[in-house]
Amino acid sequence: MNIKVLGSGCSNCKRLEVNTKKALKQLGIDVPVIEIKEYAVIMKYGIMSTPALVIDEKVLFTGKVPSVNELAEIISKVKK
Predict the structure, then answer these.
(1) What are phi and psi of 10, to 5 degrees?
(2) Catalytic annotation on 10?
(3) Exposure winner among 1, 33, 66, 72, fewest CB in 10 A?
(4) Any idea where the domains of the chain sit in the sequence?
(5) Tens digit of pLDDT for each residue in 9-56?
(6) Which of 10, 34, 41, 43 is catalytic?
């Protein structure tokens, strides 16, 4: 599983990264969360609003910060 948080490093981007790590821990999944700040890379995903979560090269959402429980649900569905 490859997990990326895309954004400028703003407070919402950092919160998404923290919530994602908490969700992974809650699920017992030990994978790194990669932070992507380079606009050229972000644009390749077609993202216009940050933060964004990308799992296994699939953009799951943009422009919001889901709760830890919402993220755990999203991650567990993708993992199956």
Answers:
(1) -65, 175
(2) yes
(3) 1
(4) 3-79
(5) 999 999 999 999 999 999 999 999 999 999 999 999 999 999 999 999
(6) 10
